[in-house]
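Our preliminary data section would be incomplete without showing what the modeling component actually yields. Below, a chain of 268 amino acids is followed by its predicted structure, encoded as tokens that our downstream tools consume directly.
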Amino acid sequence: MIKITEQASIHRSLETKTIEEITLLINQEDATVAYAIKNALTQINALISNIVEHLKNGGRLFYLGAGSGGRLSVLDVIELPTTFGIEKGIVNTILAGGVEHLVEAREEMEDNYMEGWDRLQAEKVSSKDIVIGISASGTTPFVLGALEVCREYKITTGCIVSNPNSPIAAVANFPVEVITGPEFITGSTRMKCGTAQKMLFDMISTTTMIQLGRVEDNQMVNVLLINDKITDRAVKMLMNKTGLTDYNEAKKILLEHGSVKLAADYLR
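Predicted structure:
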């Protein structure tokens, strides 16, 4: 396979450029990412459809990754219980080196071929679940080894990669190949590949949660009331949905029921 992600940047002599020149060039490169994702929408839709199916049937989603992509998946997973009111453990990340070492960037762990599968086993992964490997190169041993064993056990897999015809895409049931091209700094896949991965995590989790009924209209009706800002937002949401005009009454009902969804259902 050809590793496009490792090909030389088209931008030369970066150390001679001004701040204004550098930021303009980076912005121009970043503008291509959304188009690369658009080209992969058919693959993305197939993957999301299968995630929704597995979660509706009581399964879990596991992101499996190393480096920038793995760490970005952690950020997405952290947000979901608060934003959509889902139980912790429904969407998870298996990070090379462990989520507890998130800020240490233990990049050497991505070369461990069996660690990913061992970590999935510790979570009692089964055929009810779906596992998505994240690898810009499409060759990361930590991801590849786990997906290959998942295949043996008939566990559904997907992947997010940035090179065509990669080993990881070949073993995944639902591959997503977002080809973002050479990076601004040669091989620095935290840049365009990382931007694409963040956009994909947003797209996958948001679409999945909508399909699971965790959003009504365009609102987070199941948001957890964890601080004053979110509670205030939820009170106003409840008032807008139900016609209540007294803020304090709406807040009292909201807090009694724990979410906009449950409070609105009660008032109906």
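The chain has two domains: 4-211, 228-267. The two ends are 58 Å apart (CA to CA). Preliminary results of this kind motivate Aim 1 of the renewal.
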